Amino acid sequence: MQEKSVSMIVVAAGKGARAGGRIPKQYQTIAGKTILRHTLDALIRSYPFTEIVCVINPEDNHLYEKSVEGLSLSPAVKGGNTRQESSFNGLKALTAKCDLVMIHDAARPFVSDNLIKELIDSKASATIPGISVTDTVKRADPQMNIIETVNREGLYSVQTPQAFDYHMLLKAHQSLTTASFTDDSMIMETIGEGVTIIEGDEANFKVTHPEDFKKAEMTIMNRLADI
Ligand code: CTP
Ligand code: MG
Known about the structure:
Blueprint: E1 6-12, E2 29-30, E3 33-34, H1 35-46, E4 51-56, H2 61-67, E5 77-78, H3 83-93, E6 100-105, H4 113-121, E7 126-132, E8 137-140, E9 146-150, E10 156-158, E11 162-165, H5 166-174, H6 184-190, E12 196-199, H7 211-226
Parallel strand pairs: 1-4, 1-6, 4-5, 7-12
Antiparallel strand pairs: 2-3, 6-11, 7-10, 7-11, 8-9
This protein binds cytidine-5'-triphosphate and magnesium ion (MG).
């Protein structure tokens, strides 16, 4: 069977405010490589993507250039103020025709070959990885006082990469008038397109808070110990 043409957009234009540090989290180093480089190396290993485009904050260009040394990527694209704008800019910058487009967070360095394969093999026009919520879920007010316990049945916490029919996702982005969507599947939902969830991967966590750097380092050490 002929391989599908799949393009990959890596959104890396965030400031990493919750993670803290002198530089945005995607440029911080764990086990000798920046998080962005871990992510890109994992993606490049997993599939012969038609093109890979990183969306970045131009202020971080020097950090970006150092991170991607030696890789052959499409030119980086300028990010926006929100993730949604960054992902839209990435979509508009794709130059080659593709059957499928994937959007991935730069801050998820442990994306697996298997997850990429399952997303590409999906028959749906929008497919995302999700993990069913096992903890009891509460809604609280800003003072941390509980308002209610949320029924967790059917609740998933979702990850990236997310895979879409390219034209459908572009159309969905073009139809929006607000810019606060935190993932691309939400954008598809707003135009009434169905989105399918496949089993996500606990290891594919997003580096978000300061303690996640340690967790990421431990993950790498454990993998090295397994070889
Ligand atoms: N992102 C982006 N453009 C933005 C905001 C986020 O490309 N304007 C990217 C981030 O670089 C990250 C991914 O979207 O790879 C997921 O976002 P998040 O984890 O929220 O990262 P940040 O926005 O950088 O972190 P924070 O919200 O803590 O500031
Ligand atoms: Mg953010």
